[in-house]
Amino acid sequence: GAGVSQTPSNKVTEKGKYVELRCDPISGHTALYWYRQSLGQGPEFLIYFQGTGAADDSGLPNDRFFAVRPEGSVSTLKIQRTERGDSAVYLCASSLTGVGGRDGELFFGEGSRLTVL
Amino acid sequence: AQTVTQSQPEMSVQEAETVTLSCTYDTSESDYYLFWYKQPPSRQMILVIRQEAYKQQNATENRFSVNFQKAAKSFSLKISDSQLGDAAMYFCAYRTYTGGGADGLTFGKGTHLIIQP
């Protein structure tokens, strides 16, 4: 696609529920990133995919968070047993190569705002 | 680990005037990239300007320019002839030269820029 697409734009759920957030990167981009942006903060790294594999998941806060990218394109961030502290904007970004240089430049989607009541 | 500090939570400027946003960072590396991103209410991170640390010349993009002081680890953004459309959150970000994964981008907490008509 022309840009990074994220769905849903907004999601309201109740504490304890399961949610999935989807990211459709720019066509041909091998690298995909998930970031979490809490209110009044800058984005914080969650996980990085190179192709189908999670090359670095060191930013996932706990085992309730999981992400997949089964065909090396669309990625889904999954959150189990949601807590009020999970409320944030979840940003997805993709880049052509995932390494340094202009080919590694990140392009962002508009994010999914998650609200846990 | 790298850190990025933006000490101005909010800045206000009159339309057509010039404003400077501050950013400092901490790193032990000699080669890296620095960025300024703009985040309007749509939430999408938009790249404003980039600087390669090995380049002594300050980057310029139309009305946007940076003052890169490598020894002082300072990277400020100057916006000339401010326009109403410049109103947004501005984030300073750091990337390692080889950077993928958690090194993709490290963000500051942001500066909210208000343009007074």
In a nutshell, what does this entry contain?
By secondary structure, chain A is an all-beta fold.
Along the chain, the helix and strand elements of chain B come as EEEEEEEEEEEE
The low-confidence runs of chain B, each spanning 5 or more residues with pLDDT under 50, are: none
Determine the fraction of residues in helical runs of chain B and give it as a percent range.
Answer: under 10%
> In angstroms, what separates the terminal alpha carbons of chain B?
41 Å
Strand content of chain A: over 45%
Poorly predicted ranges of chain A = none
Structural summary, described in words:
The complex is a heterodimer of chains A (117) and B (117). Chain A is built from no helices and eleven strands. With 117 residues, chain A is mainly beta. Chain A is globular. In chain B, a hairpin with a 2-residue loop joins strand 7 and strand 8. Chain B is globular, with a radius of gyration of 14 Å. The termini of chain B are far apart. Helices cover 0% and strands 51% of the residues of chain B. With 117 residues, chain B is mainly β. The model of chain B has no long low-confidence stretch (mean pLDDT 92). The A-B interface holds A 31, 33, 40-45, 48, 50, 55-56, 58-59, 89, 91, 93, 95, 98-100, 104-106, 108-111, 113 and B 4, 33, 42-47, 50, 91, 93, 95-102, 104-110.
Topology overview:
The complex is a heterodimer of chains A (117) and B (117).
Chain A: E1 5-7, E2 10-13, E3 19-24, E4 31-37, E5 44-50, E6 53-56, E7 65-68, E8 75-79, E9 88-95, E10 107-108, E11 112-116
Parallel strand pairs in A: 2-11
Antiparallel strand pairs in A: 1-3, 3-8, 4-5, 4-9, 5-6, 7-8, 9-10, 9-11
Chain B: E1 3-5, E2 10-14, E3 19-21, E4 24-26, E5 32-39, E6 46-52, E7 60-61, E8 64-69, E9 74-79, E10 88-96, E11 106-107, E12 111-116
Parallel strand pairs in B: 2-12
Antiparallel strand pairs in B: 1-4, 3-9, 5-6, 5-10, 7-8, 8-9, 10-11, 10-12
